[in-house]
């Protein structure tokens, strides 16, 4: 029985220390196994962080990097943690489908340099960065990477697992996001005034997959993901479909970089309702040959992308 109780006690201790033991330096016994609660570990809790700034002409301060003191007690003194830039990590994280741009230093300022202060009585400190989104390219995702460098006080240990971060910054206008396909009808024509009959692509767009509206500039979004009737495949022939919104009237002008003939249907509604975050759109393309048109398209905001 004593042997069983000893085993059970050890098991409970193992569970209690599981979060601490996940750190590589503890696994390597660099910290030792005596009085674990006395260890004061400096870490960056999240390996990635993403911030989307509203596309407007004003300086905004954001907390780019969060530094945390993992300890039994809050900081007993101000702790200054110096972060080391790691641009190679931005390059390594950039991919063809999700490219990253190393944030040019002339587009932001760091009021505290690369130093994060964890104030006395707290466990957390932040690296503030000041950015004016008007200077950023909405087509790009900017990024900075850091690792923990120097700690100005003794008795603190840099985490072996949580010592670096990739911080991304982008810009979005007010219409950017993922939208539900609430209503709409797509129709193809074999000639002007001659709608196709028995065409499986013609029909309602209600309930089709969500579409994505991506910021192009302060008043323009690119629409991707529109599908034919039945949600079968993406609508072709209108690459780089764009909606430009007049913020004063909420009127929308439809264009497509991949098809210069795409235009609003005359006298039909093309408007954004800010109260419901809903677009109502009517547009056509190839009007003098095999016309295609989308009428009564209703897209309602669902979530951020």
TrEMBL record:
InterPro entries documented for this protein: BT_3044-like_C, BT_3987-like_N
Domain BT-3044-like C-terminal: 165-293
Keywords (A to Z) from UniProt: Signal
Pfam families reported in the protein's UniProt record: BT_3044-like_C (PF14274), BT_3987-like_N (PF08522)
BT-3987-like N-terminal domain: residues covered: 50-153
Signal peptide range: 1-22
Listed name of the protein: DUF1735 domain-containing protein
